[in-house]
Amino acid sequence: MFTKYGYNLIGIALIISFVLIALGIYLNNTPTRIVLFLLAILISGFTLNFFRDPERTVPADNNIVVSPADGRILFIKDVDGTPFIEGKAKQISIFMSPLNVHINRIPIDGLVTHVKYHRGKFLVAYDDKSSSDNERSEFVIESRFGNVFFTQVAGYVARKIVYELQKGDRVKIGERFGMIKFGSRVDVVVPAAWITELKKDDVVTAGETILFRIPEQR
Q1: What is the dihedral of CA 11, 12, 14, 20, to 10 degrees?
Q2: CA 13 to CA 47: how far, in whole Å?
Q3: Distance CA 154, CA 134 (A)
Q4: Cβ of 75: how many Cβ atoms within 10 Å?
Q5: Nearest by Cα to 74 from 139, 151, 127
Q6: How far apart are CA 96 and CA 106, in angstroms?
Q7: 201: which residues sit within 8 A by CB, 6+ positions away?
Q8: Which of 32, 176, 183, 193 could form a disulfide with 157 if both were Cys (CB 3.0 to 4.6 A apart)?
Q9: Distance between CA atoms of 50 and 101, rounded to whole angstroms?
Q10: Residues pairing with 35 in the sheet
Q11: In the chain, where does DSSP find H-type helix?
Q12: pLDDT tens sequence across 150-204
């Protein structure tokens, strides 16, 4: 299964690959033919792999925040909150390499109360300053437990952020909402009292891996 966000690029890659193969067949030069065939396989293989969109199974728990992205945990840190989360907060940052699935998913049930796109720089995604300096989209979901703030951050290679969320949307945990093309980063910020389920360098899967567990309210 491939994402609709990649249909155009998949088509272009397959056409280029077909032309390279046809050219290789036409040329009566074995070394050149091998290079062209390998290049065709590389282009089509990378593109199909990048835009794959596998199904995911969301955990049954109702007091969790799941990862909005596939990738590796870059940072887990305490922050002073955001305009959308009062007081202390926690942030998890996830690095998505070009080999990861790049479809982004909703981290928690709730109401979208904020959507904003920021133009900015294209620092490498693992630079901590990329959260505030890079081109990015930011979202807030108001859940029954409190606000969750999360961002799609463009990286040095990633220059295209795609999302379909709008303010006022009702969303469900694990739903697809967009992607970042060709390597990127996602940040998730929650209230400080929520319990972190992971550690730095852990590998996460969008829609399935639990990032935070929300304590029972008494």
Answers
A1: 160
A2: 7
A3: 6
A4: 15
A5: 127
A6: 16
A7: 72, 73
A8: 183
A9: 6
A10: none
A11: 7-26, 30-50, 130-133
A12: 999 876 554 578 889 999 999 999 999 998 876 678 999 999 999 998 999 999 9
